[in-house]
Write a structure and sequence with these properties.
Elements (H helix, E strand, L loop, with lengths): L4 E2 L4 E3 L3 H23 L21 H29 L10 H12 L13 H29 L6 H30 L6 H7 L1 E3 H7 L1 H16 L1
Antiparallel strand pairs: 1-2, 2-3
Helix pairs in contact: 1-2, 3-4, 4-5
Organism: Syntrophus gentianae
Pfam families: Ni_hydr_CYTB
Protein name: Cytochrome b subunit of formate dehydrogenase
């Protein structure tokens, strides 16, 4: 575990520098993919996006496509790095667990004053479910996008049925990606989750928040520290 307590500042490290780079790299490249995907519809000229400073290129299909390809290289590279890096480290905190759906319902009810939240480990059950959902969406976008790119670059005579299937899959999961992205933003706005915003930018959250809402996580850190001291 890479978590560290910053007692003098009343903080605890929730995300390492590597994890922050992963998160923001995937988020920003994903946002560029989302926008350039919309520009190819085309939408830029129709909604006067081309008149905005620095975005005159957005009305050019081929330039938008090249920017889309460039962002996809970064996006795929970081997604692959995420799998390899955390796989080697044995990180399993974001993998959904048995009972996550039931616990998520309990958490949602607590937002409306019906019952109380149970104690949590590092990640909330709805975060683990959202992670699995987003991972599936990203996987389908990458696979369908690779098929479309292969057709554009290497196989212009690819069977129409494959092209249409890849296009429909890409479009459907593109919409799901937008909805998941909006859901991610909406979840942060909820009052109980707002203390997590600090962690997204700095990697650390308030220690009193962690003690109140994530006591199981702190207990895991304590056990790891004791085990390390005994080695």
């Amino acid at each position: 575990m890479g978590e560290k307590r910053l007692e003098e500042k009343g903080l605890i490290v929730r995300h390492s520098a590597v994890e922050l780079i992963e998160h923001w790299g995937i988020a920003l490249s994903g946002l560029v993919l989302l926008l350039t995907g919309l520009f190819q519809l085309p939408m830029a000229q129709r909604y006067y996006i081309t008149s905005l400073p620095g975005l005159s290129w957005s009305g050019d299909y081929f330039i938008s496509l090249q920017v889309h390809y460039l962002a996809s290289v970064i996006f795929i590279a970081l997604a692959f790095f995420h799998l390899v890096y955390h796989g080697i480290r044995g990180d399993r905190g974001m993998i959904p667990r048995k009972g996550d759906i039931r616990t998520s319902v309990t958490v949602i009810k607590s937002f409306f004053g019906k019952g109380e939240e149970p104690p949590f480990s590092k990640y909330l059950p709805e975060q683990r479910l959202a992670y699995a959902g987003m991972a599936g969406i990203i996987a389908m976008l990458i696979l369908s996008g690779l098929v479309k790119t292969w057709k554009n670059v290497y196989a212009p005579d690819m069977p129409l049925s494959i092209v249409l299937t890849a296009t429909w899959v890409h479009n459907v999961f593109f919409v799901l990606f937008i909805l998941a992205f909006l859901g991610h933003i909406a979840a942060i706005i909820l009052k109980p989750n707002r203390p997590l915003v600090r962690g997204i930018f700095t990697g650390a959250v308030r220690l009193d928040y962690a003690r109140h809402r994530h006591p199981l996580w702190l207990a895991e850190i304590e056990r790891a520290m004791i085990h390390k001291a005994q080695e």
